Amino acid sequence: MFLMTKTPDVNLSVLDVAPIRKNGTAAETLRETIALGRGTEEMGYHRYWIAEHHNMPAVASSATSLLIGQVAAVTSHIRVGSGGIMLPNHAPYVVAEQFGTLESLHPGRIDLGLGRARGTDPWTARALRRGETSGKDFPAQVTEVRRYLGTATPTQRVRAIPGEGTHVPLYILGSSTFGAALAAQEGLPFAFASHFAPDQPLMALEAYRDHFRPSEQLEKPHAIVGVNALVADTDREARRLFTTLQQKFLTHGRGGVEFLPPVDDMSRLWNPHEKATVSAMLRVSAVGSPHTVRTQLRDIVKRTGADELIVQTETWDFEARLRSYALLAELWAD
């Protein structure tokens, strides 16, 4: 495998939601997640983040910290983390203990990306926390996690062990100006979820940079932009493979989420309104041959000023997914 060595100004990273094929198994998907982490490290990607989702038959990324540990155990230098942990679903103290443990096992390689969306239904939220939760106290929760992972004070009665003193780097994830403002205020890196929420990235990133205050973790703003990307030998083949993700968003709009094989013609599956809705949600995407995707990604970087792109690629066939990431690494190094 080739190693990505060029384009030092903008790193490429990977976001994995661990998709489960229709009629497939979670075990199969989890094995592929581990293999993808190992493969993308060999290709030279900067970091590998795993999402958090619950009660979704087509997604296996529910126990995010466990998966991070599995990927970190089979890799040696790629950064591994959460994209992200949804704090309303968890006690900040437990999150600090889990990521303190991961950092203790894999020092200097663990990232803690934090989000405020529950990302699920009220019943699942209650099952997770045994009560009503919201994102309103997200800033206080971030502060709490940060305190547990920092240097303990002599009067601190509750300590995260492992955790305290590890200073695991925090990242704020968001799809609006709320997360941008918090990341700026706290002096943390900010990752915008353009890959499914493309409406406000420029406004949010501008606010983040304008109001950024340096911190011990970060001296200047660091903006990460989420992008859907799919690379194949030809534009036509890439567009066909991309119909798997289009169908996933289509079925989500109809009240469920299914991970389905690609089709030759999406016009049979959606009506004009659904096509417009799905296309709008996926408009921050780079799909095509290496030449096409290189041009599209450079345009995204130019428009957003991204310091880093974090790429989500979903294909029905795992080998096609690996090949897409390999072609992407190669074209980014040229």
Summary, kept brief:
With 334 residues, the protein is α/β, with parallel strands linked by helices. Helices cover 43% and strands 15% of the residues. Helix 1 packs parallel to helix 11 and helix 10 packs across helix 11.
Structure write-up:
This protein has 334 residues and is α/β, with parallel strands linked by helices. It folds into two domains: 8-168, TIM Barrel (Alpha-Beta Barrel), CATH 3.20.20; 225-334, no CATH class. It is 43% helix and 15% strand. It has helices at residues 26-43, 64-73, 92-105, 122-129, 138-149, 177-186, 201-211, 235-253, 272-281, 290-304, 318-333, and strands at residues 11-16, 47-50, 79-86, 110-115, 170-174, 190-192, 223-231, 285-288, 308-312. It has an eight-stranded parallel beta barrel with strand order 1-2-3-4-5-6-7-9, surrounded by nine helices. Helix 7 links the parallel strand 6 and strand 7 (223-231). Helix 3 (92-105) runs parallel beside helix 5 (138-149). The longest helix is centred in the last third of the chain and has 19 residues, at 235-253. The radius of gyration is 19 Å and the shape is globular. 45% of the residues are buried.
